[in-house]
Write a structure and sequence with these properties.
- By secondary structure, the protein is of the alpha/beta class.
- The chain folds into 2 domains: 1-91 and 167-252, P-loop containing nucleotide triphosphate hydrolases (Rossmann fold, 3-Layer(aba) Sandwich); 98-166, no CATH class.
- It is built from 9 helices and 10 strands.
- Helix 3 (107-117) packs across helix 4 and helix 4 packs antiparallel against helix 5.
- The radius of gyration is 18 Å and the shape is globular.
């Protein structure tokens, strides 16, 4: 089954904060992503969906500048991430899937180190450390070595580093992986509140999470965008997003 591609239906007239223009990434003859084009305006929470191996993480790495595109360009807040990397990186908070952490450090020392590396003023850094410790529920493990933390707490440290410098754009790859149901609920509420002022691109395999937090779906399959539209349209008249996802990605 093929799916129509829809233009952005929400946030028209708002400043575009995330933009992919004809992004392609080739490894030899294999195309990880091919001609990916979409934009996300300020204040929108958009879900970036697709089966395993569809090109989600590759696209996110291209958008954040961790990978260089073979073709096309990525812009964050109008800055080309290839040629204006520093300007773009100041606007981005990125949570990679299974992102690396310094296991011998504590959440406190790691986040302080990252803030200092970003050149954050001392007063701002102290304020933001207090903020992320509370928002990500890290107070009880603040001084504990990361090597001793559970997967869920490590994920929360990763979220904290993405939020630390108060970025305008959040690119989150599986932000609730490893969290228990109560923690998932808290992260969903946090993402919803952040979406009121920030731009969020969220990758997840949990479709209920999409319906709970996002207003828009961008669906990628075999390296190409096959759907871009409101969550309600993706879910269809019966609201069964899982069935629609299977139809689009198995029959596409």
């Amino acid at each position: 089954m093929s799916a129509r591609s829809h233009g952005n239906s929400e946030g028209n007239g708002d400043k575009v904060m995330i933009e992919a223009r004809g992004l392609s990434k080739f490894y030899g003859s294999f195309a990880a992503v091919r001609n990916v084009t979409f934009s996300v305006p300020r204040g929108q929470v958009a879900a970036f969906l697709g089966p395993n191996g569809a090109g989600k993480s590759t696209t996110m790495r291209l958008l954040t500048g961790y990978l260089a595109p073979t073709e096309g360009e990525a812009r964050i807040g109008g800055f080309d991430v290839s040629t204006q990397r520093l300007e773009a990186s100041r606007l981005i908070g990125y949570l990679p899937e299974n992102g690396p952490l310094y296991s011998e450090m504590t959440p406190n020392t790691l986040l302080r180190y990252l803030g200092e590396a970003r050149g954050m003023p001392k007063d701002q850094l102290e304020e933001r450390l207090d903020y992320v410790a509370e928002q990500c529920s890290l107070q009880t493990v603040w001084g504990k070595p990361i090597s001793k933390l559970s997967r869920g707490y490590r994920q929360r440290v990763g979220m904290a580093q993405a939020l630390l410098h108060d970025p305008e754009v959040l690119i989150l790859d599986e932000p609730t992986a490893g969290l228990d149901p109560n923690q998932v609920h808290d992260v969903r509420e946090l993402i919803r509140s952040l979406g009121e002022t920030k731009t969020v691109l969220l990758s997840t395999h949990i479709l209920r999470e999409v319906q709970a937090t996002c207003s828009r779906v961008i669906l990628i399959h075999e390296g190409r965008i096959i759907f871009d539209g409101p969550v309600k349209e993706m879910a269809g008249g019966d609201g069964d997003m899982e069935r629609r996802f299977r139809e689009m990605t198995i029959g596409a």
